[in-house]
Please model this.
Amino acid sequence: MRGTVYRLAAAGACAVLGLTVAGCGSGGDKAGHDEHVLLLSIDGMHQSDLADYVAAHQDSALAKLAARGAQYTGAQVLAPADSFPGIMAMITGGGPKTTGVYYDDTWARDLLPAGTKDCATAAKGAQVPLTEEIDKKTEDLDGGQGLTGLPDGISAMTDDPSTVLDPAKLPVNPVTCKPISPSDYLKVNTVFSVVHAAGQRTAWSDKHPAYQIMNGKGGRSIDDLFTPEIDSNSPQGAAWTKDAEQTQRYDTYKADAVVNEIAGKDHSGAKQVGVPAVFGMNFQAVSVTQKLPASKGYGVDGKPSALLASSLDFVDRQIGRFVAALDQAGLSGKTTIVVTAKHGQSPIKPDALTRVDDKPIIDGIDAEWAATHPQTPKLIAHSIDDAAILWWLADRSPEAVAFAKRKLLAANGTGTDINGNPKPFTASGVDTAQVYAGADALTYFGASADDPRVPDLFAGTNGTVYTAGKSKIAEHGGTSPDDRHVPLLLVGSGISKHEVPQQVSLTQLAPTILDRLGLDPQQLDAVKSEHTATLPS
Model:
């Protein structure tokens, strides 16, 4: 696809060929552009979920959108299939090697640990948590803004979550000796950067203030960034994610913000500011419910449980609200709607699940290495293991890399199945054909040897979820089809109903979003670097 630009816009073809297709003359300009793009991520949703839901709910909002849009049934997220690499791909057009974002909790060899004061003598190497960990107050829905009367007063939250990030929890730039913000950690710009620079309004709603990263390098580009903290305490006392209904309530706050924005207001509904050119939100309801043991996730037939089905119904109702609001505002013929997911969730089949506690594996490797290398008591400097394993090593020598890989593949034990019963595992629960260490990891990610952020070891799994307990039955972040095969549905001016079965990447969304708005995709750093094409029509 290098150097080739494929256009979704069929309206130009309508004019040239005299064709009549859905969307022609419906409000977009003659080139098939729209004035707005509404981007929706249903985190955890699979392409199979969308297909099954549409087939079983012909009158649903999703079915009605599918009846007039393009479905990319071969859409894939990049590996590791995590929230941050996923959303970065969608809004930058690039993968981790280009964005510098390999996961939501990662390690950077070129930065200094949070709180470093003496930058001249401090050793480089720092955790970079793009999670709730960097809020001023994680337990508060506003992240530490200091509001009272929440959650009912949630609309008063700031539109700039930079103000609720704790500088003391951010890694330090060794050159400036100052904390580095998530947006400055990102190596490239985003669709919000380009749209904002073009003088148009932007907005987004997501689950942590750390999503400040979506502004991209170069400063603030999202005019209204609404990020209520999902790992805060709900009115029931526990985190919102401990209960499916509470998660739906949480998602409703963000959906309310989108409805306000469609009406030309800010997320709170208090100010009239104009409809954003690009805006949207992520839904957590499906992802959270897939993980909850009480939900049972999916049946042996791959169909959603009753609780998961209710979360899918909830999301569909919210999307129906958006469509109705667009109709009421007279924007339906001027708006491209994108429905997709940052990541899927694995495993779908309940009997494939093996829950493995990774801590004894890591501790054992560290202890055995330290016995002969006392100068490096902790070989694995940082690990993040969900539905895959990512390790950054303190010693990156070929000897150390080979040792870590060998011990990973030699670790056997007993985990638990979906019912909490003992279930043995071998090779630490990884797929032995998907273990990439050292030079192999560089090749897998397409990264250069001097990349300071690439993992030293990456391993995929087939059904393994790394968890110390029995609190979840699914997770994402891996390489399996359950993690990566997500829905991708586009509805807008000049787009007729059709399916595109060929494999496409979510990186192709970013240039497509700009193309739909009549802006140049080549203004995206990652698009130029990776030669990312727009989605084929």
In short: The chain has two domains: 36-103+186-345+486-530, 354-466. Residues 1-30 have pLDDT under 50 and may be disordered. The first strand starts at residue 36 and ends at 42. DSSP finds 16 helices and 20 strands in the chain.
